[in-house]
Write a structure and sequence with these properties.
Layout lengths: L2 H21 L3 H8 L9 E5 L5 H6 L5 E6 L2 H14 L4 E5 L14 E3 L5
Parallel strand pairs: 1-2, 1-4, 2-3
Length: about 120
């Protein structure tokens, strides 16, 4: 990814949280659209482009483990804060890019994403 593209994504990412709460559906509504709780129950889940962790934290009560990855370190810091506030312990967040995932093959049963560029 070029520096221009990285800067553009980073700039957009700083504005998404304000839009997110107003426009995005609740995690349980998204999950219902995708097939409901059986989709994530007992699974190892990767939330690609997790942002502030909203979706990852929403599915965590059903999953064995959830990993969230996002290229924006500020979003990851916010996701970690949100997880601490919610007392969720089966979720980890890391900064990284979808093109270079830091996980071995078959590390997850399911990949989810929402509002991801």
């Amino acid at each position: 990814m070029s520096n221009v593209a990285k800067d553009s994504v980073g700039d957009l990412g700083r504005h998404v949280p304000a839009l997110s709460s107003a426009l995005r559906p609740r995690p349980q509504d998204e999950l219902r659209e995708w097939g409901g709780s059986p989709l994530v129950r007992g699974k190892r889940v990767l939330d690609l482009g997790c942002g502030d962790g909203r979706l990852a934290l929403g599915v965590a009560p059903l999953a064995i483990r959830v990993e969230g990855i996002d290229p924006d370190p500020e979003a990851i810091a916010g996701a970690k804060r949100n997880a601490r506030k919610a007392g969720v312990r089966n979720v980890r967040f890391a900064a990284g890019a979808a093109q270079h995932l830091p996980y071995p093959d078959a590390a997850f049963d399911l990949v989810i994403l929402s509002w991801t560029l």
